[in-house]
Amino acid sequence: MITEQEFHRIVVYVKDKFGIDLSGKQILVSGRLENYILRHGYSGYDEYMAKVEKNPKGEEARNLINVLTTNHTYFMREFEHFDFMRQKILPKLKVSEAASRDLRIWSAASSTGEEAYTIAMVLKDFFGIDHHDWDTTVLATDISTKVLMHAQRGRYLKEQIEPLPENWRRKYFKQISPLEYQVKPELKKEVLFRQFNLMNPFPFRKPFHIVFLRNVMIYFDDKTKQELLNKIYDHMAPGGYLFIGTTESVNRSGTRFQYVEPSIYKK
Ligand SMILES: C[S@@+](CC[C@H](N)C(=O)[O-])C[C@H]1O[C@@H](n2cnc3c(N)ncnc32)[C@H](O)[C@@H]1O
User: Fold this and answer.
1) What is the reported pLDDT for 180?
2) Most buried among 136, 169, 210, 242, using CB within 10 Å?
3) Cα–Cα distance for residue pair 70/92, rounded to 1 Å
4) Where are the beta strands (DSSP E) in 143-216?
5) pLDDT at 253 > cutoff 90
6) pLDDT band (50, 70, 90) for residue 191
7) Fold identical between 4-68 and 79-266?
8) Which has the closest alpha carbon to 81: 267, 257, 262?
9) Closest approach atom of ligand 1 to CA 142
10) Burial of 71 by CB count in 10 Å (0-12 exposed, 13-18 middle, 19+ buried)?
11) Residues enclosing ligand 1, CB less than 6 A?
12) Which fold has domain 79-266?
């Protein structure tokens, strides 16, 4: 069993470094960590956390976040956002960005890549043969190196790609075993996966036209959410769109974003 003190040490560390609020989630934390700690020969939580804290960029610190994050996602999740992007946003951007032909789209908590690949398929579908003339590379970031490796590999089970339209499955996925499919290189090259902690200062030089910040703010407290939304606002192009998870909310009085419809905001 994890003691109150051991649990507190982990909660403080994870909140401070990653913004994730684990308070009250004692069972989740011990359920996910206990096994790991025992298997790796530690005498207990304190010895493990001492190692993590000593080297926050080291392997154990990376493993801690890999084990503690919740990475559930799927292709076409909250499809109304992709529909909105295709019907309402892309036609406008095609005109307003015609000179530079450079679109900047960010999947800001990409997990295993389903969201970013779905965005890339929508983009290819929308631009059709004109796609060659545009740079629409999707930036996809997450804090967990484990999910990013999965995303970069681009392998998914047959049932995971089932929500996709048949012609997209055929065009963008190659069957590699009776149960598994892999994203084809022509789609893979449209997404750039990078590790990034949303709590860090943003290194991005050019503003984003569209940001997907879906199903990650649920792990943050209100102040962290507010600060993050402010940073994102500052890194978006005027008229840019922000998508959040459909079950999430934004404190409208505390944000400069303009409300468009549930879970969709505009700068
Ligand atoms: C539930 S997934 C959401 C995936 C996708 N956006 C969706 O809506 O299906 C949440 C992701 O947020 C990531 N995450 C949590 N805290 C983060 C942080 N501080 N910086 C970057 N990513 C973070 C987790 O690693 C996890 O993969």
Assistant:
1) 98
2) 242
3) 35
4) 155-157, 173-175, 180-183, 191-195, 208-213
5) no
6) very high
7) no
8) 262
9) 22
10) middle
11) 18-20, 69-73, 77, 109, 111, 115, 142-144, 147, 197-199, 214-216, 219, 245
12) Rossmann fold (3.40.50)
Ligand 1 center from residue 128 Cα (angstroms): 30
Q: Which two tokens stand for residue 222?
A: 């209100």
Specify the CATH number of the domain 4-68.
Answer: 1.10.155.10
CA 115 to ligand 1 center in whole angstroms: 11
> Whose C-alpha lies nearest to ligand 1, atom 13?
109
149 — phi, psi (to 5°)? -65, -40
Is the confidence at residue 252, as pLDDT, over 90?
no
261 contacts: CB under 8 Å, gap ≥ 6: none
Return the structure tokens found at 152: 């970069």
Q: Which two tokens stand for residue 79?
A: 């499809």
pLDDT at 173 (0 to 100): 98
Ranges of each domain in the chain: 4-68, 79-266
Among protein residues, the one whose CA lies closest to atom 27 of ligand 1: 111
Q: What is the mean pLDDT of the chain?
A: 96
Tell me which residue of 140, 120, 142 sits closest to 76, measured CA to CA.
120
Q: 67-116 pLDDT, tens per residue?
A: 999 999 999 999 999 999 999 999 999 999 999 999 999 999 999 999 99
